[in-house]
Amino acid sequence: MDAVPNWFRGLYETTGYNFTVFYDPYDWDRYVNGLKTTLLLAVTTILASIVIGAVGALLQGGPSRFLRGLVNGFVVVFCNTPPLVQIFFFYFGLGTLLPATQTADGLRVPLLDNVQWAIVALALFAGAFNVEIFRSGIEAVPRTTVEAAESLGYTRLKAYLYVVLPLALRVCLPALNNNLINLLKTTTLAYAIAVPETLYAVKQIWSESQNVLEMMIVLLATYAVLVGVLVWLMHRWERALRIPGYSR
Amino acid sequence: MTPLPSTAGDLPVLLPFRVSRTRARFTLGPVRAWLLGAWLAGLVLVMPALAQGPDAVLSPLQVILRWAPLLLTGFAFNVAISLVAMLLGTGAGVGLGLALVSEGPILRRVAWGLTQFFRNVPWLVLLFFVMFLVPFQVTVFGLRVPLPDWIKATVGFALPVMANVAEIVRGAVRSVPATQWEAAESLAFTRRQTLFRIILPQCLKRMLPPWMNVYALIAMATVQASIVGVTEMLTLTAQVHAAEGGRPELFAPLYGFALLCFFLYCYPIDRLTARLERRFETA
To answer: Please, what is the Cα angle at B136 between B134 and B141, to 5 degrees?
Structure first.
């Protein structure tokens, strides 16, 4: 069980490469907690952004001019402004405007903490791109298919849920794939509002243990693995959803 | 060598290859976009002012008007960083992209590895990488050249640009029909001549929209430099907020102003990209 820590301790003594995370339990704990926070951010924002994308695309194709305009405005604003400024705007700007409670010691307890604000901001940012992606997928569904569903008595919502969205999803999966990978990489921005995710934890470790290069390598390897796992999952999903004969 | 003008009687093979658009857009004209921007500005500036009451020191709008020159200087700095990063990244990216389509298997493998690496690492991590692992000065032939942090940040942004541009070049070269290569070969062009005088001129048009997309992304990413200590718009915004007494109700208007600046800069680029994509699609 001690083989790994001992090996890395030995590596430090012989070569000077100080991978503290692998033999110092304190650093290891921080690293694992950071990884957990990154996973929490990634999973929740991915799910939320897919829901935002699907709902937004539904509203965008809907009959209400007001809702269409609202969704269009949302997409345009969130796609064309920096995600970091969005996070700051939400966390500092809106976070201070919302009502807050106080603890017995008089400390201000905001309605949403920094992790929750990061989730909200990142989900909206990626959701705006997902609306566009889903919309392009929906446009690829033949008009006749929708008409066929209507003639079978589907309501607009039911036709969207059971006919249009499943087909559109298959068309737009590659683009969705790209955007979700981008979202996973964007979770590092939560660092700026002190969310203790991987980058934050690793930065703490390297400032205390003076091993910037080693921790950089660990950090890069971590994100390489995370992106790799997401790509693998998305490809599996793509394969599982494939309908024989229905693909370009 | 210019591409042949296409006529109505062309065989399908001779028609330009069509790259399908992945991101469909809706129409929101420039006028309405600016109106939307103005409306947002009003929302951001006026709402907190209304919530604030009459005995305020300085209304958010006044604060922004007072500090706008400084904040806009910061914004200009962001734009400058993005332009330099784009220039460096494009230069390196075209080279890397050509390596990606080269004949040599080793060169191609190495270029592929580099591209994948720089595309898949989070930009902020890459920025940290450059900021911490590049020395603050280098000695060239006994001459000490200082490297200020903004130059390092620019290089940090140029690296992902390089990888993305390389992918764009590769995609554009691959999208030219193989018959073009064969035709050039049969006309006794060398590989180099084929690439530079036949293939790449056709690619330029195709590469422009995605290239502009990358530019918009990098322009928006430059604010990340504030995290690693470069004084740009977001840093200045925080300083302005502190200078105005750190009133919490000023956060939303100040960051809203930053959002607005980037929106008014990036949205026209986005529209232009969409328009070019549409035009090239039907051409």
So the answer is: 90
The Cβ-side half-sphere exposure at B78, using a 13 Å CA radius, reads 30
CB contact under 8 A, B251 and A199: no
Question: What SS3 state is found at B232?
Answer: coil
Question: What is the number of CB-based contacts under 8 A between chain A and chain B?
Answer: 129
Domain, as residue range, for A151:
44-195
CB-nearest partner of A85 from B23, B51, B262: B262
Structural domains counted in chain B: 1
What digits encode the pLDDT tens for the residues A37-83? 999 999 999 999 999 999 999 998 888 899 999 999 999 999 999 99
Chain-centre distance for alpha carbon A236 = 19
**Min Cα–Cα distance to chain A from B168, Å:** 15
pTM of the model as a whole: 0.81
- Report the CATH number at residue B114: 1.10.3720.10
CATH of the domain at A143: 1.10.3720.10
Of A73, A219, A227, the CB nearest to B120: A227
**What's the domain count of chain A?**
1
Question: Tell me: the pLDDT tens digits for B29-53?
Answer: 666 666 766 666 666 655 555 555 4
Domain assignment of residue A226, yes or no: no
Nearest to B227 among A139, A186, A192 (CB): A192
Q: Kindly tell me the sign of the dihedral angle through the C-alpha atoms of A43, A44, A49, A50.
A: positive
Residue B29, in any domain of the structure = no
**B263 and A227 in contact by Cβ < 8 A?**
no
Q: Please check whether residue A212 lies inside any domain of the structure.
A: no
